[in-house]
Amino acid sequence: MGVAHLAGARRDPAALDPVFDEYVDSNALLSHVGNFNVLVASLPSSPATANMFSSTVIAGFADPCVFVNVGRGASVDHHALARMLSKHTRSAAVLDVTEPEPLPSGHPLWGLPNLVISPHMAGDTPDRHERYALLFEANLGRFSQGEPLLNRVI
Question: Rounded to two decimals, what is the model's pTM?
Fold first, then answer.
């Protein structure tokens, strides 16, 4: 990807793709976020990921940084993100998801020049419906055989 260092945070370090140089325990996120100028969140919605990017974690972001969220809006404190972007004008954020969605008029994120909000389409690819059907078919076969399902989110 052309970056000097690539870290990944997961609940299961064994499942981390070998492309990453480092594993960061998600419970230690606060002590690591300031080391990176680009942060990409692709989290599912779960009790473990709710507000993972809290006001405390966001306050620890590097300056400048780029924060991208293509996961779930509930993982980010958007008011804290707005405060950070207002203060750190060299930083930026790209949000494919927000909480709530859509953001209400008057939300502090609206109007920030260093923010892009996309229409919740990050996962939209020309072949996604075919891929969904193939995954469903594979999981139906696994389910009927009593085997573990693919891509299970716990």
Answer: 0.75
